[in-house]
User: Fold these one by one.
Assistant:
Number 1:
Amino acid sequence: MNMGKNHLQCRECKKEYEPTFKYICDECFGPLDVKYDFPSVNKDTFKDREKTYWRYFELLPIVDKNNIVSIEAGMTPLVKAEKLGKELGLNNLYIKNDSVNPTFSFKDRPAGVAISKAKELGLTAVGCASTGNLASATAAHAAAAGLPCHVFAPSNIEMAKIAQALSYGANYIAVDGTYDDANRIAAQIGDSKGIGVVNINMRSHYVEGSKTFSYEVAEQLDWQVPDQLIVPVGSGAMLNAICKGFDKMPEIPLDIRESLNEEFSKKGISWLQEKVKEIDPVFFENCDTKNPQRLLRALEVYKTTGERFSSFKSETTKKRPFEIVKIGLSTDRKVLYKRINTRVDKMLENGLLEEVESLIPFQHKNALKTVGYKEIFAFYNNECTLEKAVENIKQNTRRFAKRQLTWFRKDEKTKWFEPHQLDEIKRFIGV
């Protein structure tokens, strides 16, 4: 396997691995992230390419273009919302419309990269744990790749949520229990059978696909980073990937690259090894010294920036032209659950029943299979009483809130506040 383009690195202990079918560190059991030795690119690199996210191939973890599995996703519209912007007092408000992707969600981005990597690793089957959009995206890409696809989901799931996945030939594995149970079973079967479960054992590569959102936004704004970005999140994985996508990397002038390549072709690997050892002994001691691509990259960075390549690699967080501030709102669980219950009661008082009734002809749409709608649809379809439907809304909302808090508390960079601490939040962000 060519390690010249990327490798895996433990997020905790920083141990490096070849890009194989691995997602947990052998030493400390920490998660593995994809790390890159980026080639020489600039904004002109991506001109006149296909209108998909694969136009950014150099910045994604696939080594061989022949392994790309594409269903023409990406390069979705960035629409200027003039009326909404005027209402909010914003002159340049844009909305990125990822709902026009082939399976109607941004999940086409990470699923496509994960399945392309599964193909590159020689895996013979793929799958996911999902209750909706990811199942569709995974199944569509699996069909394009000619790979069997297994969707793990709770046995009581509304079949309409996975109908699109089934239409692509996916195998539905019904798990008695919650989504968390389906996730656990998918992990166990995926590891034991060598199945590439895109959002579990392929997650290191899966999250890389979401970065393409950042690249597209920047390119569509003439390679300008937006002043502010609002990202709706569930687990937060997309938010982290977008932040990673906006990371600043040193640009290498083409003349430097061409000059070094020409000199290498004349003088050979020994000359290259000596040059890198001379200018960056730290990098030389820890790299594959028989890999000319990685050695050339070290020389390129040094000649362009005057900095040793090891100095870039040693940074746990790459320097960005902006600061990311993560704020979490939390409170006592009893208080939170009481507020959730109260909010549901208020929704009913404010016309939830009437709203859902008007949407009955469209209840098969994915956007209406969310908490709050699906439970009331069940009532109107005579599947349960109104009392039970309301109870289910409250319960499912509480479960979702619990999953969100569990996920975000893993991020040590998130600063937590009580909802009433507005003054403290303002001081924290410098307002």
Number 2:
Amino acid sequence: MIPRVPCIYIPGKLSNEAVEVFLPVVLCYGIEGCWIWSGTFVVGGRLAMVIVFTLTAVLLVLGLVEARRHRKNLNDVPIRILVNGTRGKTTLARLLIASLNAQGIRTMGRTTGSEATIIYPDGSVKPIVRKRRARVYELVPFFKEVSLESSRGVSSGLGPVQCVVVECMALQAENQVAFRDWLVRPTHVFITNTYVDHVPEMGPTRESTAQVLSLCVPRKSALYVSDSFYDGLDAKVVHVCEEVPIEDPLIHPSCMAMAWAFLKDMGFGIETLQAGVSAFVPDKGLLEPFPLRGGGVFVPSFSVNDETCMEETIRKWSSSCGGKVNVVFNSRKDREQRILLFKNVMSRVCDLVDDVLVIGDYPKKVAFYIGYGAVPCSVEEVFDKVSSSSGAVFVGLGNIKGAGEELIGKLQSCDGGCGDGCDDGGDGKGAV
């Protein structure tokens, strides 16, 4: 079996799949191994070796050219902000972008929350359309777009892009390092919080998660954090704990505090943060709870999917309504670990939950595994149950993609007046 080589970045016009097959042979087996492999599976003899090494040389030259171009694109932007953490990355990134642009600092951003987007200095948004699964290499064409926007700004008299805010999409340790050393090389890093979520990539504890997240932090950079896992890093660690005299139902207080800490360090006043809050446009997955025709409430918190926040969300709404809540859990076949996390949550809050309705991928198997009376349902069945309920509270958890988005769309399109449902209990998102 040909081993895979992590963190190989190649020119955009070449396929990653080709490199994952071809380049490891050259790197791992050397000349002799390349001769054996090519002679056995390709055409054999000297011709095969010439082809292999010619392609390798071309690949390396193109890669070096692109790496040099990317490094220049990075250096042209003096402030490069990387937002990492478990929850609240998209919210914080969007708040920073809005605040800096409101202050006149031309800022571009890239978020990968419920929908991957590029945000321009004028506030316009362009969705990122992927033909394949997400790849960390996407940061290279993003910085090309930043360079183009700088050129447009200079020619129009607006000036170049002065700051970028990038939401970290890396999970594996090697990709965290790639963000740090090659893809972004951030001057400022934010780690919003450290919860257990992506267990296969980051481990089963908060400590192991912190170890992986810390790999994105360059030496001597400014690091804004809300907990103590990162005190030993060789960075300027800023512990954010100050309360901010500004509230917004769609922005978690910890995100507000982190943005305010950074803006103060930049020399700006509270009015800059207020302007950012006023211009803030939430991610499409960040929605306020909305009333149902029967007097109930639906809480679209499908983007809440780590163990800590799922439990907090259930407890908060149970307390707010003074009774049990119903949970709609959306499963994804590529996020199986979240099923285990939710099962762990149910073991502690089952007395606060009435019904568990499972939608998404493999609902029968997932419901059986979760237990606690979980029922497999289609989106239509949940819609009928939710829309006809009388005073009940439904909390969506797990994953927003797929069935979660479908259910939210159907409920939002349902015309019905506001009922007498529960108080929204704050932002209703458990966003952080």
Number 3:
Amino acid sequence: MALDMRTALTVAGSDSIGGAGIQADVKAMSAVGVHAATVITALTAQNTTGVNGILPVSEEFIKAQLEAVLKDSDIKAIKTGMLYSAEIVGTVADILEDHEAPLVVDPVMVAGTGSTLMQDDLANALRRKLLPICEIVTPNKSEAEVLAKMKIKTKDDERFAAELIGKQGSAVLMKGGHYNTPTVVDFLYLSSEFTKMEYPRLKKAGHGSGCVLSSYITANMAKGMDVANAVFKSREMIQDAIASQYVIGHGDMVVNPCVKEGESDGFMVLDALDSAASRILDIVPEEFVPKNGMNIAMAMRNAAGPEEIAAIDKRLTVHNGMIRKGGPAKFGTAEGLSYILMAVMKHDPESRCIMSLSCTREMLDVMEEVGMRVVPVELAKDKFMESTEKAISGCGELPDALVDKVAKKDRIVRLLAKDTTDMLSKLEEII
């Protein structure tokens, strides 16, 4: 029995480093379970640091590619990415305007590195030719400003711009990743209504994020989803792709369009912490819990700041003689532990887990007996990272734990480990 494989079409430029453009589109559509047909509009000489050259494909050959694909295959959804010039837009629009498949327009104008990917007349051509025939357009802030012919400074500006862009009937996904905010807020403008989507900012979205998101949307629509559900599903998927992005060069990281749902680094960190917390509730005695609560934190790989380090929300605290979990694991919720862990990871990037415990004389004796190295640290207020770096540098190698140097009523031990499995193993040694 033949497999029912839906086919989607991407009309876009080629990215020689393979992180964006046609190459990213094919990987993203394949990850959704859709076959990707391609029409290449331009060749680029580019990498993760910038675009070194652009060679547009002739309008005649773009037309030949489109006709070849559309004549042979039952295309269920179409996406346009980098079109580069008004002439190419016109060629593509003339062929697609009579095609029944829904059209997703990613108005690619500038690469993530800042390099221009269009000629000056592109925006007008998009407005006149493609926006009237597309199902949805997916601009970021700078693209929306060009398409709407206005500056966007506020959320009200953003909404007004979406209304201007979508005035001919298309839905508009306003991507919020370019704002410097703790969370990423996107808006879907559909049928004169706005739907807000808010997600934690895990890290700077790498090379290809816009291409991958619009390809996810296209592929999900090819599988039969309506615009709204395709956007919501794809927005969840790009969160995982960004969380799992990786390094291939000297510039921006590259998003991972092939990550399977629930297998991103961010997801695995949260799942590992929640599982570890459940075990901690079973094995840790009450006297190990500091008065302000106990916590365990874990960083994503290559974490750039506290927003990429997760911990148990509202900590683990004692209530009526029982240790209780305040909430689920969450990113950006334990700033103090996060800064200490950032300093630890400078010495050993693989040591991504930390746990705070109430220190007792007996605990320190047990640690010594089992061969754990404990280093005193004097944590200066608002200088946790610097204080930790100083303590670690002074001992020559990464210790197993850091203990408050200054005697306090509630002295804290911070146990260090590779991951939650390693942490639980160390914890069981000292209990």
